[in-house]
Amino acid sequence: GITSLLTDGGDRVYGMHAHRATLFAYSLKERKIVQSIPEMGLGDNCHNGLIFGPDDRIWGLTVKCLFAAKRDLSGFEVVAEYPDHAGLHGYRFGLCLGPDGHVYFPNGPHLMRIRCGA
C-alpha cells in the first residue's frame, strides 16, 4: 500500500510504497510512474511522512531515520537517525516543516525536531 503522497502542484505526485520501500514519482500527464528509488532499505515508512524540505528536496520519515531525496529521484541520503520511541510502528502520521524552518514529527510520546540551517 501507499503510505504517503505529495504533490508538486504541477505534473508530479510523489509517493512511498510501504511493502517495497520505494519512493516514486507519478506523472499526471503520462499516467504512469516515471521515476523511482526502489528498495530504499531505511526501515518501515511512516504514514503521511513526505514533505518538501527546507532545501526543496523531498524529505521522508521512516521508523529509523529522516531522509532526503532529490526531486528527480536520482539519489537520496539519510538526514538524521533518531532513537525510536514508538516501537518501530509506522503509524506516526505526520512530518511537517514548521514556520521556524525546522522539521517536526511524532515519535511515540515525543515530538522530534530537526534543526535546519542552524
Could you characterize the architecture of this molecule?
The structure is a single chain. The protein is mainly β and 118 residues long. It contains no helices and eleven strands. The protein has a four-stranded antiparallel sheet, with no helix packed on it. A four-stranded antiparallel sheet has the order 5-6-7-8, with no helix packed on it. β7 and β8 form a beta hairpin.
Question: In brief, what are we looking at here?
Answer:
It is built from no helices and eleven strands. By secondary structure, the protein is mostly beta strands. The strands form three sheets. A four-stranded antiparallel sheet has the order 1-2-3-4, with no helix packed on it. The chain has a four-stranded antiparallel sheet with strand order 5-6-7-8, with no helix packed on it.
